[in-house]
Amino acid sequence: MGIVINQSFKNTITTYLGFGLGAINTLFLYTEFMSDNYYGLVAYILSTANIMMPLMAFGVHNTVIKFYSTFKTKNSLNSFLTLMLFLPLALTIPIGLVGFLSYDTIASWLTHKNNIVGDYLWYIFITALAMAYFEVFFAWVKVQMKTVFGNVMKEVFHRVGIMILLFALYFEWITVEQFLTGLVSVYVLRTLLMLVNAFYIRLPVFRFNKIDKLSSILKYSSLIIIAGSIATMILDIDKFMLNNYIDIEKVAYYSVATFIATVIAVPQRAMHQIMMPLTAKFINDNNREELNDLYERSSLTLYIISGYIFLLIVLNINELYTIIPEEFSGGIIVVFLISIAKLYDNLLGNNNAILFNSDYYRMVLVFGVILAISAVVLNIILIPLYGINGSALATLIAVVVYNTIKVVFVKMKFNMLPFTMQTLKISVLLIICVLAFYFWEFPFNAYMNIFFKSIIVGIVYAVLIYKLNVSEDITAMFKKYLRLKK
Among candidates 245, 249, 292, 294, which has minimal Cα distance to 411? Predict the structure, then answer.
């Protein structure tokens, strides 16, 4: 776990920096500098681009990680990497042609509720393409066990760029149309910088020789397209579907609420960057002992860290919503529901990495199809009944079912579970902290209340985690960074 903890710690810092900047953008700058209609449009563009991204990437970002360590000669490896660079074009070019020839039909379908969307469909395509190739180049460096720069680009760069654009919009240096063009340009520039970094670490040597595992590679990529699309779709299908049922400004309200809850996913996002290639290596080497150890340790570490973030969000949510504009306050229930879903995601540790890099990756597709259908059906039923709260409830139910199926499957095929008695201790601790602190408020302004409560909760939680010694890795970090005696 040494390399995992080391790079995950660095990635966690940069990811939190990115989310901090994102919080400023999402909670304050967007809400003050941009109309609700255009804010909803931005959320829709980015969400739809995220849904399209795995399709545009042709699953290459996962394929590189799974197969890279299986090639033992330079020629075979160079041929494999050459294929990975050009394979996404097999889908992006046809998708672009279909979009060009059927633009009016697609626009008519997507704009029956909100006409503003129709003029910006190409923005979605370009952003999705940039996101796709960014992930390809990021995977290029992940397999070299170098993830820190890529994580900075993934989490920080575009948020800084958007912040600059928002201030330029506020001071009327640019129009809202120019802002939207600039938004797309930020994602394109991020991809180009990631390309430079990837080729600096390993310069491509183009080889078009026959690849022995070509059939397996293409089969894996094709299935992972769908599996990855489904996994990504679950994160953004709610915003996409809300556009068809409610006014687009309410998509902005939902986007703010989900962003707050998504902060819980930061540790998983940070650790995922290094866990994917490491898990693939253990599976390719048939090292079940190390794989099981990584499964349990990653679950505990992520649960402890994400549990603390969960507490900070849930215990401060009422005060936080007094700070941002009042019309956004209808998203409090959304925050609770999505927070629980994200906490469960973290509890699974490297479960996704095991499934995606094992011979059972086809089952991810089966599970994903079940999840996607469930999510769509639940959204169709619950959005008309409960609005944005219904969409959040649909997401929670779908995620709980999906994650539980994955845990049971890994147990059946690998005889491994991420849960231990320490998991139960952490769960009890989280429940006690919520009951003890939720109704307790300081008689100050919202900022001071959040600050003091966060400090107190943090100290109590950290002391109890250390005293209970629920994780060797977390305890070791306490001793290392706080100079605690053994």
Answer: 292
Token pair for residue 176? 């809202």
Output the CA–CA distances (angstroms, integers) from residue 244 to 61, 62, 241, 250, 290, in the order listed. Answer: 31, 32, 5, 11, 47
pTM: 0.69
Question: In this structure, which amino acid lies at residue 16?
Answer: Y
Q: Average pLDDT in the 232-251 region?
A: 66
User: What is the spatial distance between Cα 264 and Cα 246, in angstroms, rounded to a whole number?
Assistant: 27
Residue extents of the structural domains in the chain: 2-482
> What is the Cα–Cα distance from 152 to 6, expressed in whole angstroms?
15
Rg for the chain, CA atoms, rounded: 22
Segment 66-124, tens digit of pLDDT: 787 777 778 888 888 888 888 888 888 888 888 777 756 665 655 555 566 667 778 88
d(CA 128, CA 156): 18
Q: How many CB atoms lie within 10 A of CB 164?
A: 12
Evaluate the CA torsion angle 96, 102, 104, 108 in order and state its sign: negative
* pLDDT bracket for residue 232 (50, 70, 90): low
Q: Where are the alpha helices (DSSP H) in 348-420?
A: 351-357, 361-386, 388-414
Coil/strand/helix, residue 237: helix
d(C-alpha 58, C-alpha 222), whole Å: 7
The DSSP code for 324 is S
Q: Which residues contact 136 (CB under 8 A, 6 or more apart)?
A: 57, 60, 61, 64, 84, 85, 88
Q: What is the number of alpha carbons within 13 Å of residue 153 lying toward its C-beta?
A: 28
Question: Which residue, 345, 337, 329, is CA-closest to 382?
Answer: 337
Predicted confidence (pLDDT) per residue in 345-372, tens digit: 889 888 888 887 777 777 777 777 777 7
